[in-house]
Amino acid sequence: xDQSIQFDLDLIHRYDKSGPRYTSYPTALELHEGFGExxxxxxxxxxxxxxxxxxxxxxxxxxxxxxxYCACNKIVTKNRSHSVPYLDNLVRExxxxxxxxxxxxxxxxxxxxxxxxxxxxxxQMQRLMDATRRHFNLRSDDGGEYSIxxxxxxxxxxTIAQLRELGFNRISLGLQDFDPAVQAAVNRLQSKExxxxxxxxxxxxxxxxxxxxxxxxxxxQTETSxxxxxxxxxxxxxxxxxxxxxxxxxxxxxTQRQIDEAxxxxxxxxxxxxxxIGRKLTDAGYVYIxxxxxxxxxxxxxxxxxxxxxxxxxxxxxTHSDCDLIGFGxxxxxxxGDAYIQNVKELDPYAARISQGRLAVFRGVELDDDxxxxxxxxxxxxxxxxxSFAVIEREFSIRFAHYFAPELEHLRVMQGDxxxxxxxxxxxxxxxxxxxxxxxxxVFDKYLAQKQQQxxxxx
Length: 459
Hints:
Arc Repressor Mutant, subunit A; ten-stranded mixed β-sheet; 2 domains; globular; iron-sulfur; metal-binding; 17 helices; three-stranded antiparallel β-sheet; 459 residues; alpha/beta; pyruvate-formate lyase- activating enzyme
C-alpha cells in the first residue's frame, strides 16, 4: 500500500477551510436532548442481541495545572480530594452500565483519558480497575488494547510499574513542545528528562506501544524550534506520533484566552512546520496513517490500515471496528449499536443523576439508513484513502452513481486538482490529497453546510 504524502502548497491554500475531524459521522454536533436514557436502553438491548466485543472509555477530568491551549473538558485543581466523590460516582456508573450489558462480552479495548488520568493515586486507579473487572469481562491474557494517557510531569518509574500491574499495555505521553519559550507561553513546563524517563520506563515494563503527543501552531513556535523538538523525540523512536494542529478558538475555550494571539505563528510558518513534520517522520521510517497520526510500519495501526481493518471512533484511529463503545464519566461519548450517546458535561448534574440511580446520558442520536451509508463511505476514505463503489453498493443495496450524483461532481473537481483519481470502480486518494482527506470526506457530509463555522480549520 502506498502511504506516501505530497505537500502541495497551492492545493493546501485553496482547500484550507473549517471542517470536522470525523471521529464520528454524524459528528457530535448532531447529538440532541431528544435522545435520552430510554432510547439508550433500547440500543443496549439490540447490542446485546447482536453480541460482539466491547470497548470502554473512562473520562478522568482533573488536571493539576492548566495548559492554555487545551480544548478538552477538564477541571483544574491542586486539591486531590476533589477526585474522591467523582470516583465514587464513576464506580456506581460502572455498576449500573455493567448490569445492562451481557457479561460474557469480552472487553477488547479500554482507554482512560482526560484531563489527566494519573491525577488519581494508585489506590484510586486500582479501585477503578477492580470495579471495571467485577462488572465487565476484562481480558486476563494481556491480549486487549488497554491504554492510558499520562502526564510525564507527574509520572515516574513506580507509576508506570503500577499502571502495567493494573493491566495497561499501551501508553500515550503528552508533550507538545520542548522549547522553553513555547512551554512558558502555554503554561506547560516539561523537561526532556521527565518525558524520556517515562518513555523508557514504559518500555522496560513491557508496554507494547508508546505514543507521543505534539502540537504545531503554538505561540512562538518556528520551523527550526519544532524540528529540534521532533529530532529529540525521534532519537527515542516511539511507536506512534499524534501531531495535532493547534486550533485557536478562544470564543469557545476560555483557557485559550490566556494566549497572546500576536505570538501565534502565521499560516505560512504553520505550513512550513507541517511540511517539515511529514518529511522528517517519513524519512525516519514512519507511515502516515492519516490526519495527525504516524506510526511505525509494524504498529497495529499501520498493519490494520494495510489489511483494510482500520476504523475511526471518538478516541481517533482504532483497530477495533467490531466493538461497541461505552463511555463513562462526564462528557464521555459512546457508540452502541446504531446510536451515539453522550453523558452530561458537568460534575453536579453527573452526581445528581448517579445518586438517583439514573444513567448520566443527556443526549444522543440514532443513525438512520442514510447516516450509516455516509458513515461507511467516510470511514473508508479517512482510514484507507480509497473507496470501492461495489463494496458500498453490496452493503447498502444502492447504485452509487445515482445515490451520490452531486457528490461525484464535487469529486471530479478534486480529481482535476490532483487530490484523487476517480473512475467507475471507486476513488483512490493520491499523495497530494492525503493531507486534505477531511476535505474529501466533507463532500459526503449532508449536515455540514449549517455547522461548518463550529469546526477547526483543516490545515
